[in-house]
Design brief:
The complex is a heterodimer of chains A (592) and B (166).
Chain A (H helix, E strand, L loop, with lengths): L15 E6 L2 E7 L5 H19 L3 H10 L7 E6 L2 E10 L3 E9 L8 H16 L2 E7 L4 H7 L3 E5 L3 E6 L20 H7 L5 H12 L1 E3 L1 H6 L9 E6 L3 E6 L4 E2 L5 E2 L11 E6 L2 E6 L2 E8 L20 E3 L3 E4 L19 H9 L12 H11 L8 E5 L11 H15 L9 E5 L4 H10 L4 E4 L6 H7 L1 H5 L3 H15 L4 E7 L12 H17 L2 E7 L16 H17 L16 H5 L4
Parallel strand pairs in A: 5-6, 9-14, 18-19, 19-20, 20-21, 22-23
Antiparallel strand pairs in A: 1-2, 2-3, 3-4, 4-5, 6-8, 7-8, 10-11, 12-13, 12-16, 14-15, 15-16, 17-18
Chain B lengths: L12 H6 L6 E7 L5 E5 L4 E2 L4 E6 L5 H11 L4 E7 L2 E13 L3 H14 L7 E12 L2 H11 L18
Antiparallel strand pairs in B: 1-2, 1-5, 3-4, 4-7, 5-6, 6-7
Classes of the chains: A alpha/beta (592), B alpha+beta (166).
Chain lengths: 592, 166
């Protein structure tokens, strides 16, 4: 808690974005001694007319300006598009923020700059549970602005109104409270990790922390261009509503961010919609303009058996995601991976589907859905299959393999070439099972996810995989697949960060990173691409509520993984920025 | 000017008109991380509005795509030259957005298929925001030169007096 009037209102030296306006970005920077002339001249420019109307005595007027002289300790300079345009002098007490002075150059008044700064102050007060107080000359028309922002009059004297905005304690927290403890964010890390661009750091941080829509953004994604279908969307301050949800978020560089709008993780980012654009905010700070993946043409259509096609295949920007079997048998008896909320998600989504939501998707429905999706020019460049694990069969996973072959054959009927760009995220199949997959389908890429490299932590976090057929068998499956699908066509994913989960995970970030790099090196030597994705302690998983590693961990991780793969001549083009949206390290490989 | 668009220059109306003409020459210059420049023709380049240029890239692996990605990641600039008859413009711009799906992407894809056949494909549509635009037609260059360096630019033989009957 800040001591009364003891510390500067803001201590940042670098300008911080307050709010974007139509005509510019408003930022605040700490005042310096050299700002005295600017601030004092600004006070005269903005206040002289009102002061002269308030007092006729020259000594009173002089006393006013003396009282309101530059106070560097409590003043920040307001900038618009990097130009000094105003000042904010703020005094902080135990219970309130007192706006001692807020001035904007006369020629720039009326453009929302003062309002943006005040909203910034109000937001801070809300976060800190403080009231906001100010006083205003009675002749100053700015009083109207203050009242519009919610200030109420507490009293008045012959010269001033005394206005106050009551304590703004949040009534409901939209997120699980896990303070970030000043972890560096994407912009700071982009400077300390110059080989990892801001966009990729931002993507990983949005995945890590989640995304909320403002009511305006939620309204905007009801547009048919963005409509990915009905879902329960959490927005605003945590309200839940069943509306159309958007698809993956897109950054300006084309990077797709696989994040559920409305997912509540840790201090979620916010997307607002202003002037026809989606704008991403971190708290009050404007980050960048973003977009959402456009709705594919096949959404809203049904197969000949009446199944909504979007329940059969979901669309990423350029990838069709198909889940032919929506049940993970690892959940039977509690053998599911401890970070996984897959089954709970499917259970929830089944209540949303239009009609029945069968475990297994019929081959004809798959064929028709893909056929319809491919009618849209230039939309899809890959088909991805995944499904719940099914260890049943004469040999472990035989049922699952049979099902995948049937699905791939149904999908493959749509293509004039035998092989088509496709990826199967499956269990650790045996060599004969892999040979069948390759021989009987058009599959090009196989991906048995190892999830966690360390043997002990693997057994703890992935009990199903440990039971059926164990870590070594999963690794052997990836290596065998290289003989069949070729080097660079076999992937394995790690849920990066989960190896730090309590109580049996690694104690330090360095240990976790060393484990990832060891795994990547091992797999790369054998022609397998080892990718990372950001661990999210999903609600519904056993790890819900656990603390994620900081973004700096992921910056170091993706940089290291990229370097190792590059050394072995491997490139994760099947899981790149346009297809998957889950892997910062493969996004990095976009530039060679 | 919109807050997100920085200090953009307006694309002149005549330039926007020229960019709708099929025979205008459109050249894109980018630079790689190593400082090596790359120059390509980009026939698909058009003006989307007063500030925005758009064109299709065929492959992510192409050097210009690589350099464009590098530029959008690290706030680098690119250059565009447009020539049509005696008119020419030089544009310095910044990559603003890479589109891999959506209505604008589809428009460029379909145009590519009309031009190059039904199997033609594109990898992305890049949007550029113009930082500066200058008229590079010969007349404009000479006018600028005379205005900036009235006695330094031209060779004196062009200015020599020649008697009528010499």
């Amino acid at each position: 808690m800040t001591a009364p009037c003891a510390a500067p209102a803001f201590t940042s030296v670098q300008p911080r974005t307050v709010q974007p306006l139509r005509d510019g970005v408003v930022t605040l920077r700490a005042a310096r001694a050299v700002d005295a002339a600017f601030v004092d001249a600004l006070t005269r420019q903005t206040m002289l007319a009102y002061v002269a109307r308030t007092w006729s005595n020259v000594s009173d007027i002089a006393a006013y300006f003396a009282k309101n002289r530059f106070d560097p300790e409590h003043t920040e300079i307001v900038q618009c598009n990097g130009q000094d345009v105003g000042r904010l002098t703020l005094l902080v007490t135990q219970d309130e923020l007192f706006v001692d002075n807020i001035h904007v150059q006369p020629e720039l008044q009326g453009r929302g700059i003062g309002g943006a700064v005040l909203r910034h102050v109000i937001a801070r007060a809300r976060r800190e549970g403080r009231a906001v107080r100010l006083q205003c000359l009675r002749v100053n028309p700015a009083a109207k602005l203050y009242r519009r922002l919610g200030f109420v009059e507490q009293g008045q004297d012959a010269t001033h109104f005394f206005l106050r905005l009551p304590s703004q304690r949040p009534t409901r927290s939209p997120v699980v409270q896990q303070p970030r403890l000043h972890d560096p964010g994407p912009r700071e890390l982009a400077e300390s990790h110059p080989r990892v661009p801001f966009f990729i750091l931002l993507k990983m941080d949005v995945q890590r922390r989640g995304l909320l829509l403002t009511p305006a953004a939620l309204d905007a994604v009801q547009d048919p261009l963005y409509d990915y279908g009905r879902s329960y969307v959490i927005y605003g301050q945590g309200e839940q509503v069943r509306k159309n949800a958007p698809g993956p978020m897109l950054l300006r560089d084309g990077t797709s961010v696989l994040v559920l709008a409305g997912a509540q993780y840790n201090e979620a980012y916010t997307v607002d919609f202003r002037d026809g654009r989606f704008l991403l905010f971190d708290g009050d700070a404007f980050i960048d303009e973003v977009d959402f993946s456009p709705r594919p043409d096949y959404y809203g259509k049904r197969t000949s058996s009446g199944v909504p096609m979007e329940t059969i295949a979901t669309a990423r920007p350029q990838r069709l995601d198909i889940n032919p079997y929506r049940y993970c048998h690892f959940w039977d008896g509690g053998h599911q991976c401890r970070y996984c909320a897959y089954f709970t998600d499917v259970k929830a989504s089944s209540t949303l589907a239009d009609g029945k939501f069968p475990r297994q998707v019929a081959g004809q429905d798959l064929y028709e859905t893909v056929a319809e999706a491919l009618k849209e020019p230039g939309r899809f460049s890959q088909v991805m299959l995944t499904s719940g694990a099914d260890p049943r069969g004469d040999q472990t996973f035989d049922f699952e393999v049979d099902r995948q072959i049937e699905a791939l054959q149904a999908i493959g009927r749509n293509f004039k070439t035998r092989r088509f760009a496709s990826q199967l995220i499956g269990c650790g199949y045996s060599r004969p099972q892999l040979q069948r997959l390759y021989a009987e389908t058009g599959l090009t890429t196989y991906c048995p996810d190892i999830e966690v490299w360390d043997p002990k932590i693997f057994d703890w976090i992935c009990p199903g995989k440990a039971k059926w057929n164990g870590r070594d068998a999963w690794i052997r499956s990836a290596l065998d697949a290289v003989d069949i699908f070729g080097p660079g066509n076999v992937y394995t994913n790690a849920v990066a960060g989960v190896e730090l989960a309590k109580p049996h995970g690694f104690a330090t970030l360095d240990q976790a990173l060393a484990s990832h790099f060891e795994a990547c090196e091992f797999f790369a030597k054998n022609g397998v691409i080892y990718l990372s994705l950001v661990w999210i302690p999903w609600r519904g998983s056993q790890f819900h509520g656990q603390k994620q590693p900081p973004l700096a961990f992921y910056a170091r991780l993706v940089e290291g993984l990229r370097d190792i793969r590059r050394a072995y001549g491997l490139r994760a083009s099947n899981d790149d920025y346009r297809h998957c949206g889950n892997h910062g390290d493969s996004d990095l490989e976009r530039v060679q | 000017m919109s807050f997100l668009e920085g200090n953009m220059d307006v694309l002149p109306k005549k330039l926007r008109e020229v960019l709708h003409k099929p025979h205008a020459i459109r050249i894109l210059a980018t630079v790689g991380r190593d400082g090596v420049p790359d120059v390509v023709l980009r026939d698909s380049l058009v003006a989307l509005d007063d500030h925005t240029l758009a064109f299709a890239e065929t492959s992510d692996a192409d050097q210009s795509s690589q350099n464009l990605t590098q530029a959008i990641w690290y706030d680098g600039a690119v250059a565009v030259s447009v020539v049509h008859g005696a008119r020419a413009w030089r544009i310095r711009a910044r990559p603003w957005r890479c589109l891999i799906a959506g209505p604008v992407f589809k428009r460029f894809l379909l145009a590519a298929r009309v031009a190059r056949g039904p199997d033609a494909d594109i990898a992305a549509v890049w949007l550029l925001h113009a930082d500066t635009v200058s008229d590079e037609s010969l007349a404009a260059q000479l006018e600028r030169d005379v205005a900036q360096r009235p006695f330094a630019g031209a060779h004196l033989d062009c200015a020599r007096f020649v008697a009528e009957n010499a």
